[in-house]
Amino acid sequence: MHNEWFRALPSIDEVQKHENYEVLKSEGLDEVRLTNWLREEVERMRNHIRTGKFSVQPEKQALIDDILHRLTARVLTWQKPRLEQVINATGTVLHTNLGRARLSDEAAEAAKEAGRRYSTIEYNKETGERGSRQKVVEDRLTTLTGAESAMVVNNNAAAVYFVLQAFASGRKVIVSRGELVEIGGSFRVSSIMEESGAQLVEVGTTNKTHLYDYERALNEETAMVMKVHTSNFYMQGFTQSVSSETIQEMNGREDILLFEDLGSGVMYDFSKEHIGQEPTVQQAVKSGADLITFSGDKLLGGPQAGIIAGKKSLIDQLKKHQLARVLRVDKMTFAALDETLKAYISEETAKALPAVRDVIEPADVVYERALLLADKLQAKHYKTEVYPVKSQVGGGTMPEVELNSFGVCVAKESVTAAELERTIRLQSDPAVIARIQDGWVCLDLRTIALDEIEDAAAAFP
Ligand SMILES: *Cc1c(COP(=O)(O)O)cnc(C)c1O
C-alpha cells in the first residue's frame, strides 16, 4: 500500500463542483440522498486504493470521473421501473414467470383509473352507506356461470385454501389419487389441505378411481368430496374418474359438499375451436358441484384473482368468514376483472381478449407476423429462418394441446446463439425472452403482438 496514493482521492466538495454533478442534481433527487450516495462512492474508491486494486498511482481527475460515472449509473438505476416490461417470445401464452394473461386494453385502462380515482369499491350509492366489494362483479359472475352466488379472493390457491378451511377444517376430504396434483411446485393439493386443517382421504389409484372407492371412504367424519382438475398433466390410456353428477347422487346427504377446483376458469369454449377438452365454468356449475374455484389470470384472461362460485348459502358463509378479509382483493383487480368479465357477453368480444385471442389465433395469422420480423432482421444482416413451431397454452392449462404456430430463428456469424440470446435479454429494453434451438435463437410469434415487432427487431444490435 502506498499512503501518498490516497492524496488522489477527491473530497466530497471537489466532486460536487464538477459540472456532471450539477446535471445529476437536476434529476430531482433529494440532495441529502445524492450526497450520501456520493460519500459511499468515494469510500468505495478509498477501499480500492487500500486493497491494492490500482497497479499505478491513480490520478485525481480519473477518480472523479469514475466516481461520477458510478453515481450517474446509480441515479439512472433508481429511475428505472423494477418490474420491467418484456417481450414474450416463448410462445407460451400464459407464462407464469412473465405474468400469465395479458389484460385487454379496456381492463388495463379500468385498473389504471381505479388506481387514480376514488370509486364505489365498498360504497353503496343508493343508501349512501358502506357497501360490499364482493358486489362489484357478483352479478356478472352469476349471469355468466349460472351459479347462485360468487365471490373473489386473491388467487385460486387462496380460494381452495379458503373453501377447505371454512368447510372442512378438522374433518375429512375425499380426493381421488388421480387428482392429487402439484402445480408449479408451489401449489400441492395435499399441502394446501394440510395447511387448512382438513384431513385428506385418498381413494382409488393414480389411473383409476371408481364410484365404489368414494362410497367406501364416506363416513360421518366426511366434510366434502373434492375434485381437482388435473390441469397440468394429461393422462391417457387405461383411466377412469367419476363425474360430479355421479358423486352428487352418491352423496345423497346435504351436508357432504362437492367442491371442484377447476384450475383455469374457462368461460370461452375452446373445444369449439378443437383446442383441448377443458371443461367450462358453466359446465362445472351445471354438473352439480356445490362450490367451484378457478383462477382469474389463466384462460379467463383477467387479473390475478381466485373466483369462488356456487350455492348462495355457502358463499354467504364465506363472505362473513374472517379469512375473507385476509384474502381481500384490491380495487384495481376488481376493475380489471369487471372489464374482462364484461367481454364474455358475446363470443366476438370474448375472442378479442388477449389470452383467448392468442390461444385460438390460426397459424397463418402468426405466420404473417413471423415474415414481418424476419424481414426486419434480414435488413440488419441476420440469418433468419421462418419455420413451423408448436406453442403451449401454459399456466398449467391444457398440457396436451400443441398450438400450431410460427417462429423466426435467428443467427449471426461470429456470434454464438447463447451470446445472442443473452444480448436480447439483457441489453434490450424491453427485454426479449426467447429460446435457443440447434444453435439458433428462436422467437415464437404467437405471443408477440403486431405492435411489439418493432421492439423485438430493435433488440438485435
Ligand atoms: C393454477 C391452479 C391452481 C392455482 O391457481 P393460482 O391462481 O395460481 O393461485 C390451483 N389448482 C389448479 C387445478 C390449478 O390449475
Automatic annotation (TrEMBL):
Its cofactor is pyridoxal 5'-phosphate. The keyword DNA damage does not apply. Keywords: Cytoplasm, Protein biosynthesis, Pyridoxal phosphate, Selenium, Transferase. It is found in: Cytoplasm. One of its GO terms (molecular function) is L-seryl-tRNA(Sec) selenium transferase activity. Its EC number is 2.9.1.1. Belongs to the SelA family. This is L-seryl-tRNA(Sec) selenium transferase. The gene is selA.
